[in-house]
């Protein structure tokens, strides 16, 4: 046997073992139900991955609900894009970032209004995926109560998926969620003086 | 002053300070150029965030190139969705996961063919965003050389953005990239026996 052939054979054997492990895991994962996904942490990609799931759901012909908490004042690429689709119900909270308004009472009222829209989606079995973008920020600031969110998640239609994004997800939400990713900042272009770019951040 | 009014005023003052910090950061980030974004780590959301950036770019009317390395054998929701758009050039590598093929020579040839398509996109100034999905896996397995990737990134059109996803991004790529996120698994529904779901993983 040549060394190259040996290397190929070792690769084949290693991959065959890996396939056995993967196949066994897939066979044992038998439960089908709606899942709650939380994207948190200080890095880029929390909302972006939420919108990637919206695209994925649309690829399967699902109906999707989106509520953007906090980020209401800027029109982003996602909003321009996903508003084109009749399968997407898209709601943006009326106010901007909380450091733009500097008004706690107004922010609370706006967040509660957005949460009321989200609550309607979480009771609607016709909506297969609900994206609650930056809800964690509203929870952290106390504009929406985590107990209200948990109650709505528990009572939602069994097949409905929910994605919740934003820094600082509360522990009770992390405990309840099925899939949680901590998106950790290794570095960001912004730190090197690069402006937020269309198609990347905007 | 009532306690509630004091609390509102403290909030306003804190947010005013935060706005000053944010505004100064935005003003100092003056460079405009294409950025390289790397999504790595063992958690969910690496590819999903890449596809979220594709949606964002389409919202701005940009042209996008997608090359899926490794994941070629399954038709996912993203592929079904983004193939609808004439602005998206979508290429899927011909073979499936490497533990499905168990054939290093065939995998290498397929990865090199996919890399050739990616190289064409990285020389095309008409493509504003290039998503190289799971390229990190092909780099890790040695199917594509990291030096070839770095040379192509350095020589690409100045305004072009590139997103590279997959576990185990090589250090040289992390060093070169502008924005890097380590998507860390906190937990995954799969671990609790929940099957991969349409609109979430598929």
TrEMBL record, chains A, B:
- Pathway per the UniProt entry: Cofactor biosynthesis; adenosylcobalamin biosynthesis; adenosylcobalamin from cob(II)yrinate a,c-diamide: step 2/7
Identify the EC number(s). Answer: 2.5.1.17
Assign the protein's first listed, main location to one coarse class. Answer: cytoplasm
InterPro entries given in the database record: CblAdoTrfase_CobA, Co_AT_N_dom, P-loop_NTPase
Q: Does the keyword Oxidoreductase apply?
A: no
Q: Which GO terms describe its cellular component?
A: cytoplasm
Keywords recorded for this protein, A-Z: ATP-binding, Cobalamin biosynthesis, Cytoplasm, Nucleotide-binding, Porphyrin biosynthesis, Transferase
Q: Which GO terms describe its molecular function?
A: ATP binding; corrinoid adenosyltransferase activity
Superkingdom of the source? Bacteria
Q: Which GO terms describe its biological process?
A: cobalamin biosynthetic process; porphyrin-containing compound biosynthetic process
For the keyword Cytoplasm, the answer is yes
Q: Which residues cross the membrane?
A: none
> What is the reaction catalyzed?
2 cob(II)yrinate a,c diamide + reduced [electron-transfer flavoprotein] + 2 ATP = 2 adenosylcob(III)yrinate a,c-diamide + 2 triphosphate + oxidized [electron-transfer flavoprotein] + 3 H(+); 2 cob(II)alamin + reduced [electron-transfer flavoprotein] + 2 ATP = 2 adenosylcob(III)alamin + 2 triphosphate + oxidized [electron-transfer flavoprotein] + 3 H(+)
Per UniProt, subcellular location reads as:
Cytoplasm
Which NCBIfam families does this UniProt record tie to the protein?
cobA, PRK05986.1
Q: What functional role does this protein have?
A: Required for both de novo synthesis of the corrin ring for the assimilation of exogenous corrinoids. Participates in the adenosylation of a variety of incomplete and complete corrinoids.
The entry sums up its family as follows: Belongs to the Cob(I)alamin adenosyltransferase family.
Q: What is this protein called?
A: Corrinoid adenosyltransferase
Q: Name its species.
A: Ferrigenium kumadai
